[in-house]
Amino acid sequence: MPVESLNTLLKQLEEEKKTLESQVKYYALKLEQESKAYQKINNERRTYLAEMSQGSGLHQVSKRQQVDQLPRMQENLVKTFKVTKSPKGRK
């Protein structure tokens, strides 16, 4: 191959190399940005799930307390009914 064609080929390869390096930088930047966006969304998702878990846990505790109080409330109602009814029945 003549020297001129080799120089032309070298210039073409150098241009292609610059283009490829530019693409690599572009995609590296894009990957970094998308990675940060993913991390942000993932952290928000974790926070949301933790809040939901706490809310669900509080709801379950509240529900358990209500269920635990139900027999006592029934006993109190029965006692109140007996106390209210007994004196009237005796008179």
Kindly describe this structure:
Residues 3-51 form a coiled coil. Keywords: Coiled coil. This is Coiled-coil domain containing 169. InterPro entries: DUF4600. The protein has 91 residues and is mainly alpha-helical. The protein has one domain (1-91). 97% of the residues lie in helices and 0% in strands. It has one helix at 3-90. The longest helix is centred in the middle third of the chain and has 88 residues, at 3-90. It is rod-shaped. The protein starts with a helix and ends with a helix.
Structural class: mainly alpha
**How far apart, in Å, are the first and last alpha carbons?**
130 Å
Helix content: over 70%
Average pLDDT, all residues: 81
Low-pLDDT runs: none
The count of strands amounts to 0
- Output the number of helix runs: 1
What pattern of helices and strands is seen along the backbone? H
Oligomer: single chain
Total discrete domains:
1
**Main sheet makeup:** none
Strand content: under 5%
What global shape is seen? Answer: rod-shaped
**Roughly how many Å is the radius of gyration?**
39 Å
Q: What keyword list fits this structure?
A:
single chain, 91 residues, mainly alpha, DUF4600
Question: What's the structural blueprint in terms of helices and strands?
Answer:
Blueprint: H1 3-90
Short description:
The protein has 91 residues and is mainly alpha-helical. 97% of the residues lie in helices and 0% in strands. Keywords: Coiled coil.
